């Protein structure tokens, strides 16, 4: 049996209770070494076989899994954040399905959520935006034309941009041409939730490139853009308003 598990964003305590149990029980662990905090591997049994997939190709990963299956062992395939986002998990799941290998998936706390927690920020604010777009900027990995940053940004939603901090100048250009003002607030969170390593940079579209350069951040960072970050003039929600009734509470005014 293979368990695909989301390890969370970096803080070893941000794995789910279920993910933690599966990791403790695993005979074989294949972890995404480029991003998973190795602290979390201290949960593994001393005799567990541990592989870092950063140095492996798809076929090698599948080979390790197949050998474990033949030996009746349990494998955890440990991905960073949540496995459903930018994890190249689909090709692994498809290959396991094709080979008749049984597997399941345990979700994890994605880094865009850890970044919100670090920023102490809600992404969906009443009267401002009710939508979050998760995306990346096209670079070495292309993004379909229909969902270029220029097009997505026209909606003026909250944007959580993965895998793109090295492309910040291009992002700034795209967002300005899509209609975001140069004063639009932007935050960059490096290693959100990692103990002692996290860095938070807050700025505006016209300052952020330089700020991030000065902080020497060129990877493992989440870029958040949008009016939700603007701390002035935030309308209050209806949910807790005294004039608003809903299923669980009557209006009081
Ligand atoms: N599945 C992962 C994303 C993997 S892609 C998730 O759900 O978070 C790797 C990208 O995720 C990085 O380039 C960066 O943009 C982002 N990322 C991963 N961990 C991060 C963290 N702790 N803080 C900020 N960004 C992070």
Model description:
By secondary structure, the chain is α/β, with parallel strands linked by helices. It folds into 2 domains: 2-106, Cobalt-precorrin-4 Transmethylase, domain 1; 111-229, Methyltransferase, Cobalt-precorrin-4 Transmethylase, Domain 2. The protein contains 7 helices and 10 strands. The strands form 2 sheets. A 5-stranded parallel beta sheet has the order 3-2-4-1-5, with helices on both faces. Strand 8 and strand 9 (199-204) form a beta hairpin. The chain binds S-adenosyl-L-homocysteine.
Short note summarizing the structure:
The protein is of the alpha/beta class.
Keyword list:
five-stranded parallel beta sheet; binds S-adenosyl-L-homocysteine; globular; Methyltransferase, Cobalt-precorrin-4 Transmethylase, Domain 2; Cobalt-precorrin-4 Transmethylase, domain 1; five-stranded mixed beta sheet; 253 residues
Largest sheet: 5 strands, parallel
| Number of structural domains | 2
CATH fold call of the largest domain: Methyltransferase, Cobalt-precorrin-4 Transmethylase, Domain 2
CATH H-level superfamily of the largest domain = Tetrapyrrole methylase, C-terminal domain
**How do the strands line up in the largest sheet?**
3-2-4-1-5
What best-fitting shape do the alpha-carbon axes yield?
Answer: globular
- Class inferred from helices and paired strands: alpha/beta
CATH architecture of the largest domain: 2-Layer Sandwich
Instruction: State the end-to-end CA separation.
Output: 57 Å
Helix content bin = 10-25%
Please count the helical segments.
7
> Mean pLDDT score, rounded?
95
Number of DSSP strand runs:
10
How much beta, percentage-wise? 15-25%
Return the string of H and E elements: EHEEHEHEHEHEHEEHE
Radius of gyration: 21 Å
What ranges have pLDDT less than 50 throughout 5 or more consecutive residues?
A: none
The CATH class of the largest domain: Alpha Beta
